[in-house]
Amino acid sequence: MTKDELHAAALALPGATMNVQWGDDHIYKVAGKIFAGCDGGYTNLTVKATEIGFEALTAGGRATPSRYTGKHGWITFADLAALDPAEVRGWLAISHQLVAAKLTKAQRKELGLIA
């Protein structure tokens, strides 16, 4: 997946924003909460995964538990360019859903995530 494809896919999710922080990391958020991040060169990707996704992707060697946040279900893919764009869009959507689910009802309603 390319930098432009990832950027477009992440920002297409409801209420998604991106800012550069911690040096040159590109961080994608929903209501101020991180759901994905890449280094400035877009060589890696970090997302939150379901328990099953975390186990499958880390046990299979496709991803590693993220430094500092791996114990909370975050995984890192080391080579973004080698990843299938359709899979990445799915992982972004899941991460976005997991993070958005922890927002308040008012925040989710404001973002159009609930009626």
What this model shows, in words?
- The longest helix has 16 residues, at 85-100.
- The protein is built from four helices and six strands.
- 35% of the residues lie in helices and 24% in strands.
- A hairpin with an 8-residue loop joins strand 5 (64-65) and strand 6 (74-77).
- With 115 residues, it is of the alpha+beta class.
- It has a single domain (3-110), classed as Aspartate Aminotransferase, domain 1, CATH 3.90.1150.30.
- It has helices at 3-11, 51-59, 85-100, 105-110; strands spanning 16-21, 25-30, 33-38, 45-48, 64-65, 74-77.
Instruction: Assign an overall shape.
Output: globular
Corresponding CATH architecture: Alpha-Beta Complex
Structural class: alpha+beta
Using only CA atoms, what is the Rg?
13 Å
User: Please, how many helices?
Assistant: 4
Order the strands across the largest sheet as they lie in space: 1-2-3-4-6-5
Q: How many discrete structural domains? A: 1
CATH fold-type name: Aspartate Aminotransferase, domain 1
* SSE sequence, one letter per element: HEEEEHEEHH
Termini distance?
33 Å
Q: What percentage of residues falls in helices of 4 or more residues?
A: 25-40%
CATH class group: Alpha Beta
What is the arithmetic mean of pLDDT? 94
* Low-confidence runs of at least 5 consecutive residues: none
Strand portion, in percent?
A: 15-25%
Largest sheet: 6 strands, antiparallel
